[in-house]
Write the structure tokens for this entry.
Amino acid sequence: MKHLTLTIVSLLTIASTLNLKAQTLDPQQEAKQFTEKQKTELSLTDEQYPKVEAINVAFFTTVDSLKSTDASKMAKLKTLKKADEARTDSLKKILTDEQYAKFKKQRSENKKEFKGRYKNRG
């Protein structure tokens, strides 16, 4: 049950972060901006950058398409989780072990931050 809760919190973190940014950016722009951030934070090489950007475009396109569906929140969360897992699996194949460890650490920190904000909400 704890794992399910953490999964839902992490997906909500991603969704809320993406929702705030997505209000002004299309998926291509959002992916570009996010990849630029990753380039700095993960020290992406020139060879890795276009591959990571393509993965991010696919992910952000999926997220964007969820906004216009009439699916239930649970269905949207499941789709988002699958897209996030696919993105993570794809990144693992491209990033070095050190870069992937940084990526996972950042995700973990983002989850903790969101969980803290969620608890303090009400």
